[in-house]
Design a protein that fits this description.
about 30% helix
Length: about 200
């Protein structure tokens, strides 16, 4: 029976599960948390860490889905912005077309608001935060990055119009969906991506 389960379980268990999983060790998670906390203290990064303790193995945590999503956002976005060169990427409904590509209220409004409609509407939008944990420089406003979803290998070019408050990348919903071809990003509420600056 165990040999039959070996074929099925990897499809059912999250790749993030380290404990009680063949070829993985629960200590991997402890080392990762230790490295993140050490980096936060060393670089004097402001933030918080949340530890959820499950009293018994296999217990289930029954909570409102909205609360679970908030905890996930706090945990993933505030603590793990870049792991092994991959950037945590979420989405937001900028609705650039619906607002007639008006940058009012966005970080780059003072820089790019006087740009032509063609300039503001040529690419979908994104918010950006430096991988080193530094606030975004105004000089990055209006530049473009090519974002690749490492799960689907799909990419999209987006224009930086805003600064993330919590780190990583926050793509306009249409851009997020364009590279989320397997639906995993929507299901998880985030995806891991790589990006590079490109001309635009």
């Amino acid at each position: 029976m165990s040999s039959r389960l070996k074929k099925i379980l990897p499809k059912l268990i999250s790749e993030n599960q380290n404990g009680f999983t063949a070829g993985k060790d629960i200590m991997d998670s402890i080392f990762l948390v230790s490295e993140v906390l050490h980096s936060m203290f060393k670089d004097k990064v402001k933030g918080m860490a949340i530890k959820l303790d499950v009293s018994k193995d296999y217990d289930r945590l029954f909570m409102a889905s909205k609360l679970v999503r908030w905890i996930a956002i706090c945990f993933f976005v505030a603590s793990i912005l870049c792991v092994n060169g991959e950037t945590l990427t979420t989405s937001t409904p900028y609705d650039s077309a619906g607002r007639n590509y008006d940058l009012g209220g966005l970080f780059c409004a003072t820089i790019d608001s006087n740009q032509t409609l063609e300039f503001r509407s040529e690419y979908l939008w994104t918010a950006y935060y430096d991988q080193a944990g530094q606030p975004m420089e105004l000089s990055l406003c209006g530049t473009c990055i090519q974002v690749t979803n490492d799960s689907t290998d799909k990419n999209v070019i987006v224009r930086i119009v805003d600064q993330c408050q919590n780190g990583g990348l926050v793509l306009e919903t249409d851009a997020f969906n364009a590279i989320d071809k397997d639906g995993k990003g929507k299901h998880d509420g985030h995806m891991l991506t790589t990006y590079k600056f490109v001309g635009c």
